[in-house]
Design a protein that fits this description.
368 residues, alpha+beta, 6-stranded mixed β-sheet, two-stranded antiparallel sheet, 11 helices
């Protein structure tokens, strides 16, 4: 059970079954997700500049090699490791930066998500990342029961601006192979490492108390997911509206479709509610109408409750449902008059913006 496995199982235990059994996922090869991953790699590479004595573990050579290489490195009394791999009782943790000082092991989790140090505490948007660290803490504490395990986040500071021009472009990212489920990247820093360390654009945040408060819950789920993997049986799917965005609803020739397997006992009407405009905002008897309909196996648009057609979104849904059932187009009665007032030629101007964790120019802060 890896950390990514844990996160998958946390979102849905059936997804973990599909992941481990090689079901195709719509996230595979997603260019946008790859772009986000590359941004994380750049921040991760910058974080290592703050630890010039750090030694990188070669995870691209396989888990077994990484575990062995890490074990040898941890025989030293003091060492800093990047991507250290540690296993215990059927789980494996890969730590962004691990600092060993005698019997003290510090987990440093690097995230591209920036922090606002003017806020007194971390909000709920950090829960996922705190669970990441709690997972690693559980594995490391079990592997080294005598160790004192500490936990830190290492993240960009929104309140700081860089004095380095073109900082983002000083990290050259190149793909370095794949193990079939994960792509590996090499990141080469082309700038002045001392200058990066000097301006302190990244900060450490002590999250010991938050992690300690989550470890019991994380350990319980870890044990459940490990037992599921050992059993090798697909768990009963918890069907709900969240299933409609499942990445395992992926059509691939001669490959299984996870979503269809989960929903094999459910009706498949021609006019399915999963296509309804803002389906998740429809309420009935104080709960999401879609979940109640799924429980009752009422999945046809014609089964929608009256509350689906109230308010501004309700008017939009009524248009959708009525014309979908009739197989007709809807045209706004004001459209012809609107178009008649246009002067040709028409010019379509598309504006794009970008925000990156690492500033593009001098004087900018992370994500500015």
């Amino acid at each position: 059970l890896s950390k990514s496995d844990y996160k998958t199982g946390q979102s849905c235990p059936v997804k973990l079954f599909y992941k481990k059994n090689g079901y195709p996922s719509s996230n595979e090869g997603d260019a946008y997700l790859e772009l986000l991953a590359e941004g994380g790699y750049a921040v991760g590479a910058m974080a290592t500049l703050y630890y010039p004595t750090g030694v990188r573990i070669h995870n691209d050579r396989g888990v077994a090699h990484a575990l062995e290489e890490t074990a040898v490195a941890l025989e030293r009394d003091q060492v800093v490791l990047f991507e250290a791999a540690i296993a215990a009782s059927g789980a494996v943790a890969v730590v962004d930066i691990l600092v060993k000082e005698g019997q003290t092991i510090t987990i440093i989790e690097v995230k591209s998500k920036a922090i606002d140090l003017t806020k007194p505490e971390l909000g709920s948007e950090w829960n996922e990342h705190l669970d990441d660290i709690a997972f690693q803490s559980e594995v490391i504490q079990e592997a080294f029961p005598a160790a004192h395990v500490k936990s830190l986040l290492f993240v960009p500071d929104k309140s700081r601006c860089t004095d380095i021009e073109g900082l983002y472009s000083q990290f050259a990212i190149r793909e370095n192979g794949s193990d079939g489920s994960f792509r590996f990247y090499d990141v080469e820093f082309l700038g002045d490492a001392e200058a990066v360390r000097g301006e302190g654009l990244m900060v450490h945040v002590d999250v010991m108390s938050q992690v300690e408060g989550r470890r019991g819950e994380v350990r319980q789920l870890m044990d459940q997911l490990k037992a599921q993997l050992e059993g090798g049986v697909r768990p009963e799917p918890p069907l709900g509206i969240q299933c409609f965005s499942c990445e395992y609803n992926c059509e691939k020739e001669n490959a299984p479709n996870g979503f269809r397997e989960c929903w094999s006992e459910m009706p498949e009407p021609e006019f399915h509610i999963r296509d309804v405009y803002h389906l998740g905002t429809i309420k009935a008897s104080g709960q999401k109408a879609a979940d109640a309909m799924i429980s009752a196996q009422l999945l046809d648009m014609r089964d929608l409750p009256p509350s689906a057609f109230t308010g501004k979104r309700g008017a939009r849904r009524r248009i959708q449902v009525e014309h979908t059932l009739r197989g007709t187009e809807w045209k706004s009665p004001d459209l012809a008059e609107e178009i008649s007032g246009w002067s040709y030629p028409l010019h379509f101007v598309d504006f794009e913006t970008t925000t990156t964790a690492l500033p593009l120019h001098r004087g900018l802060a992370p994500y500015e």
